[in-house]
Every structure is written in C-alpha cells, then in structure tokens.
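User: Show me a protein chain along with its predicted structure.
Assistant: Here is one chain, sequence first, then structure tokens.
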Amino acid sequence: MKNLYLVNYWVPFPSSEYGGTVSVIAENDNECHDILLEWRDDYLSDHDSKIMENVHQALTYSLAENLQSGVVDSFTT
C-alpha cells in the first residue's frame, strides 16, 4: 500500500527563505527519500541527511488506491 507524505522542505535559509512542503506518494520512507533526492538532485545531495530526517517527521496518510510513486506537488521558496 502506498502513502502520501507531506514533507517539510529541508533547505535552510538563505537558499530557501521560508521553506515549504513537498507532497510525495511512496511505499515507504526509503522510497520517499530516494524520490526526493532525485527530484532536485542539482543541489539536494548537499542536504541528504536532512531529507531522511524530514521524511521520518512527515505527516503520512495511507492511500486507498495504488497510485504511481513520485512527487505530487511542491511549494518551496
């Protein structure tokens, strides 16, 4: 079963002024982490350890349907 993760953005000020949220469909924390790492790999590798920390702290909702894994929506600054 897949889950919807609402992950707080992990890039600190000044690169991200107010943070944000990324919504991800994934089977588990590890898949969510990998999706986020690939999502913006141009600079996210600098924050790899913070990504998993925020995935563990994310609000998570079980989905009734088996939807495709990936980033659903994002709002970042």
